[in-house]
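User: I'm writing a short report section on ligand binding and want a predicted complex to refer to. Could you take this sequence and iron/sulfur cluster and write out the structure as C-alpha cells? A short remark afterwards would be nice.
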Amino acid sequence: MIFINGEAVDTGEHRTVLQAALANGFYVPHFCWHPELSIVGNCRVCLVEQEGRGVGIACNMPVVDGMRIETDSETVRAQRKAMLQFILLNHPVDCGICDKAGECTLQDYHYAYNGEPALSHDPKLKSTKLYPLSSRILLDNERCILCSRCVRFTREVSGSDVLGIEYRGDSALVRPAEGRTLDDDPYSDNVIDICPVGALLSRSFLHQARVWYLEATPSVCPRCARGCTVQLWHRKPEWHLKALDPSRNTRILRVTPLENPRVNGPWICNRGRDLGEVLERPRAEQALQKGAGVTMMEAIEATRALIAESTRGIALVSSWASNEEVRAFQSALGQSFTSFVKPDRLPEEGEMVEDELLIRADKNPNTRAAQALFGSDAPEIPEDADLILVWGEGVDFAQLPRGARIVFLGSWLLPEVGHADVFIPLSIQTERRGHYTNFEGVVSAFEPCQPRPEGVIDAETLFPLLAAPGGARGRA
Ligand code: SF4
Ligand code: SF4
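Assistant: Sure. The C-alpha cells for the complex follow:
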C-alpha cells in the first residue's frame, strides 16, 4: 500500500511508482517508458515527488510500502516544465506538417505542462530530415527526442538489433547498424507507433491524412493463423472528400495494432500493416455462368440445379471464411457435399514463414474453426467427383477432375472466375461482421468498414439459398 496524492493505493503486482500510478488512474507523463520495454529513464518527464526524498523519476522508483507520492505538486510541475523546455530546445515546431500531430505526446504534454515559448534565444540545431531507415520508414532526426524506444524495440522485442544511437549530446543520431536497414526487421513498423513524436514516419501513410479526419474500425488480420487484432483506419464519413476517385474515401489508409494480451500484445508484423494489398485487390462483382454475365438469382438457381443433380459433390472450404460462415455452410450444405478445408493462401516468396514472436506458417486466419467442422486439408480429389464447390482462393482448376462441374465462390477478379460453370461473387471481411478463431482457439471479432459492392452477396446469406430441396444426399 502506498499513498498517491493523499489517496491510499493498492499497488498489487506493480513494482514501480509509475506502473502503480497509471494502473490506479493517476496519470504521469512519460516518453521513454513503455510497458513492454526495459526502463532507461532518459526522458526525465515522469517526475514525481516522494515525501522526505524529493523529486525523482517514477519509472525507476521502486514501490516501498507506505511511501507518499505527489504526482502534480508545484515542485513537480515546475521541474516537468523545465524538462519540456529542454526537450523542445531543438525540436522543430512543425506540427502543421507532421503526421504525428493529433497523436503526439510531446504536443499534448507541451500544452498540459509547459505551454510557453522557448526560453532559449539560440537557433535550433539542424539535423537530417527524411533519413531512409528502410523502404517503409523515414526518420526525421530534428524531431527525434532520443527516448530510445525504437532502439530498445529492435533489441528486446523483434530481436533484429538493427537500430542504435551514434555520437553523443546534441549530435546524437538514431541510425541503423552498419550495412543494415530496418527492412531486415519484419516487425519494423511498430517503431512508428511507439515513437512518442513524429520522428519515425511511415512512407505509405506520409501526408495521406490528418488523423482527426480518420476513424478506426476494430478488425482481425487474416494474413496468418495468429489473427492479430488490428484497427483499420479510414476517413470519417463527415470528412469524405469530394474527390473524383470515390475509393479514396473508403480506402484503408493505415493498419495499426489493437492491443490484445491474449493474441498479439501491442504489436503486429509488417504484413498485417499491408492488409490493403490483399483486401483492396480488384474485386469480382458480377455473377457468371460459363464466363457470361448473369444475375445473382440466375447464378443461384444454376448452382441449386447442379447441387440437386450431383451425387458425388466435393466442397473445398475456405480457411478465410468466418466462424459464422463455416457454420452456415455446414448447416445448409453440409449434407450435400463431402467437405475438406483448404489453405486459401500459402507463404509467398521472400515472406517470413514463421518465427517465435507472432508470425505463423499457416497464412490463413480461420483454419482451426473450419477444420473443427470439416476435418483437415483436402486429400487428392477423387476422379469420379461430379461437382466441385471451390470456396475462396488457392485452388488450381487445372488440377481438378476433368469431368466435374465447378461452382466457384470468390471475391477477387482472378482468372478462374471465367473458367467455372458458375461463379458467385462474395463480400469480404471489411464489408461484414464476423469472428475468426486463431490457432490457439482465441476468438476475435471484426467489423465492417467499407461498403459492399452492389453485385456481391454475403456467404452467410447465400448458403441457405443454395440449399435446394432434394439436394441433400445424406452424407455424414
Ligand atoms: S526516433 Fe522516436 S522512438 Fe526513436 S529515439 Fe527518436 S523519438 Fe524515440
Ligand atoms: S503476425 Fe500474422 S496475424 Fe499478426 S499481423 Fe502478422 S500476418 Fe497478421
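A remark for your report: The first helix runs from residue 17 to 23. Residues 470-476 have pLDDT under 50 and may be disordered.
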